[in-house]
Amino acid sequence: MTNSLWKSTRRWLPGLLISLAAIAVMLYFVDLERFVDAIRSANFMLLLVVLALAFVWLGVRGIVWRTILKGQAKFRDVFLSLCEGYLLNNFLPFRMGEIGKVFLLSRKSGLGFMEILPTVIIERILDLVYAATILLIAVPFVVGASGTGRIALIIGIVMVIGLVALFLLARNRERGLDLFRRLSTRWPGLRTQGVKFLDSLFSGLSILTDGWLFARVLLWMTLNWAIAIFQYYILILAFFPHATPLWALFGQGAVALGNAIPSLPGALGTFEGAFVGAITLLSGDQSTALAAALTSHLVNYLSTGFIGLYALSNEGETLMGIYRQLRRKEVV
Question: What domain count does the chain have?
C-alpha cells in the first residue's frame, strides 16, 4: 500500500509543485485591486463572442480528429468523446482526458483502443508544431522574448523528428511485424497478442502515409488554430482595447506550449502563468493580464464542461466512474 501511494505521489507531485509555484509568482506580482478593476471594466459583449467561438473551435477540432481517424467514427461520437476528454483533463490528474477520450470513443465506435490512440498522439504532435511555429513568427516582434523563441525552435524540431519517426514506422509496417514475430517466437502467447497490438497501432498511424488525407488534416488543423488565434484576439481586446493581432499570436503559442508542462488538472497555474507572462511582455500590465487569463480559462471550463457533462450523463457515467474504469483497466 505504501509503495503504491508513493508511486502515485511521484506522478502528481511535479505537476502540483509547478502549478503552485506559478500561482505563487503571479499572486506576488499582481495588484489585486487593479485585477478587480480589470474584471469590472472588461467588454462583456466581446466575451460573449469569445464563448461562442469556443463552441465553434470545438466543432472544428472534432472534424480534425475525425479526419485523422479516416472517418471511421460518426462525428457525433467523436465530438462528444472529445468534449468528455477535455472535461476529464479539467478535473482529473495525469492528463487523463487524452487517454479517457480514446477509451470512450472506442466504446462508442467499436474501433480498437490501440487503433485510436495513435491518432491522439499525431494530434498532439501537430498541435505542438503549430504552437512552436506561431511563437517563432511572433517572437521577433516581442522585446525580451528571444529565450521563448529558442524553446519554441527546440520543441518544433523535436516534434517534426517525432512525426518523421512515426511516418517511417507506418511506412515499414510489414517489416516491423515480421521483426516482432521473429523476436517473439519463443513466447506464442506474447506473439499473438503483440501482433494484434502492433497491427492496430500501425493501422492508426497509416494516415501519415496517405498524402491527400494528411493534407486534409493540415487544412482543418490550420482552420482550427486560426479560430483559436482569432478567439484569443477578441478576448484580449476585451481587456486591452489597444491590442494587436500579434498579442494573440504570441499569447496563443505561449499557452499551447505552457499546457504541455506537468501541472494540476486543467493546467491550473501553468495556463495562467504562460498567458500572463506572454501578455505582460507586450502590455507591462500583469494584473489585467491575469484577469484576461482567468477569464480565458473560465471560458474553456464552461464550453467543454457543458458538453462534456451532457455527454457523460447521457451515457450514465460520472467523472469518478470513468476514472475508476480507467484505473481498473490499467489504461493510465
Answer: 1
